[in-house]
Amino acid sequence: MAAPVVSGAGLAAKSVATTFQQLPPAPREEPLSQVTRLLDRDGKPFAQFYQANRRAIPLSRVAPVMRQAIVAIEDARFYEHGGMDVRGTLRALLTNTSAGGIRQGGSSLTQQLVKNILVESARTEEERDRARAPNLARKLTELRLALAMEQKYSKDEILERYLNIAYFGAGAHGVEAAARRFFSTTAADLTLPQAATLAGAVRMPYSTDPSIGPAQRARLKERRDLVLDRMAELRLVGVREAAAAKRSPLGIRLRPEPGGCAQSRYPYYCVYVQRELLTNEAFGATARERRARLATGGLVIRTALDPVAQRAAEKAIRARVDARDTEVAAEAMVEPRSGRIRAMAASKDFGRNPGDRKNGTRTTFNLVADMAHGGGMGLQAGSTFKAFTLATALQQGWRFDQGFQTPGVLVPSQGYRDCRGRAVNAPSVRVHNASGEGEGGPYSLSTGTWKSVNIFYMMLERKVGLCNVVRTARALGIARADGRPLREVPTFTLGVNEMDPVTVAAAFAAFAARGRYCRPQAIVEITGRDGRTAHVRPTCEQALDRKVADAVNHVLQGVFDKGTMTGQGIGRPAAGKTGTNNGYTSAWFAGYTPELAAAVSVGDIRGSYRYPLRGVEIGGEYYGSVQGASLPGPIWVASMESALRDTPAGDFHPADMSRFGGGFTPGLKEAEEAEQIRQMLHRQRQWLRWARRHGHQLWPPGGDVLGTPGERRPRFSGRTGVAPMGPGMAVSGAGEPGAAMPQAVVPGAVPPVTTGR
């Protein structure tokens, strides 16, 4: 009876017997293609990669009603036959012929499993076509392999494999992905109508795809009702229960299953992780192998991404820089003592612009990272590099108050050698102090840092040795964003090298960690499809003497209360360095607390040299020039305040004053006293102009508030009465470049004076 059904009328019975007695081995089973997911530090997914949207699960995690539904409609005698159900095939043939269409499956579940295995494991299109070919030879091979599968596996093992490999439509491979995609639930929680719907979709996954439109949903409901009727016929459910299920709506709740970084919630972080995996030979010997593993491996990759810090960075940037601006801001947050990247954010959305336009609200460059992690050329880091010269000087025994006289202009024509010992002087270059730094004068290690004095640091770099500064920077992980060697030139300390925020943040995190540098790390652990987890340990080394790092922290804390960031603190111990390039080609701020480090960069995406940050409107605000303290600084402050709001504030380790305290700078004391007088007179002039503009009268008539310290100060009277103008009174907002004139006189408010970068 079997011979004419399975092999054709012309095949002899003896040949049939031989064909099905001498069976081949079961088909080779490649690991099923599964989704690789990226999780944040709290275990919540934020991105996924897949060639096929599938999550393989054991049969125990499939609802019993789902198992019954698929067997009922596809192979009712599955648990009775040995892989080739002749009686079931004949019955399906008669049923389908009389109905004029496919109502019951003619192949056993084992045969269908074999077909799916052959298609899934095909390495070429030719092999895939052979596995699907509608001819007798393919059917015969499929039957023989099905019998071999029945000898190798139990019935439940075969059913488990089938439910994981079958395609249900709407991009869902396997019952778990289908349950999530169709109903936003799991295979374990499927109800009778839902299970019948999925079972009905397997036979016609394309024409019943609910994501396409109403016609497909109507066909899917017909298939669902057919499954319910068949289950009632087999007495797997009651007639009334089946009828009630048929009256219920489909209840499709399509769950989006975005794939790739462009559809990720945190795309820049996703790109960083993706590039880390695709370029790391530990993840696979070849690039092709690494890509395949990422797309099909079913891995669970836990990252260091902190949603709180990530949202803080995104909010701070978007409040000040619009995605439509050609100027872009980017920020990276790195955890000291581990190097774990807590956040990566940028002002533009990730992806392609409409029509693939170059300029728009989107970009395909990872603006936060280096070129190896999907970034671009980077931006010159500016005066943030002075921190490495500072660390080098402290390592060589310089003290906080030690310094020297500086000229108003410097030509680096001698004294600079790179790490090969070659002279790299630049006699044709003239270095000036940035606006607000004056025409030179005496500066110490502390004051030269707080005011970010270019010429002081050029001279300091020459004294401590250019190569020594370069070595310090390299030890702290500094490398160009484009992967090329660092430019070892006299202006190294002024940040002539193009950098990315991740690299700079990790370097500054080493200061917070008392000199312990940790390579930036995004991946914390990887769990394979077998359930085994590999933990990724931080890669760290002591790059800087602990006490030197403490001394750097001591000086850089002064940037917030005595230097370029005066008045922009975050209410807890913090240290940092502004960075503005000559010509305003880019602007930076890099800073840190004992708990977290961050770096913010701002530049024009069209090219920082062609489009400097002068006379620009960013985020609806006009900037005559963008400096480190005017835009990157406020972004850093806002993001750090929010990121650390639930983290107890810690203190930096105190500096060793016996080693670093003291020192002498000729003329510094006198210059500071003169500067105090100039600032006082400047504030008095501002107050005088404000008072006259608002109708106040000076007393005595014709009197002048200007004077010298120790003199009796005149008083003024007006509509608001008489008030003294003494040392404890100042005009609010005075001293801030570009600030509007104050609306009131505030007792006790001594305004900051921004003088550097």
UniProtKB/TrEMBL annotation:
Gene Ontology CC entries for this record: outer membrane-bounded periplasmic space
Q: Which residues form the Glycosyl transferase family domain?
A: 43-231
Q: What keywords is this UniProt entry annotated with? A: Carboxypeptidase, Glycosyltransferase, Hydrolase, Multifunctional enzyme, Protease, Transferase
A Pfam family: Transgly
Q: Does the keyword Protease apply?
A: yes
Tell me which domain of life the UniProt entry assigns to the organism this sequence originates from.
Bacteria
Pinpoint the Penicillin-binding protein transpeptidase domain residues.
333-595
Concerning SUPFAM superfamilies, the annotation shows: beta-lactamase/transpeptidase-like, Lysozyme-like
An example Gene Ontology biological process: peptidoglycan biosynthetic process
On whether Protease is a keyword of this UniProt record, the answer is yes
Any one Gene Ontology molecular-function term assigned to this protein's record: peptidoglycan glycosyltransferase activity
Q: What is this protein called?
A: Penicillin-binding protein
Phylogenetic lineage? Bacteria, Bacillati, Actinomycetota, Actinomycetes, Streptosporangiales
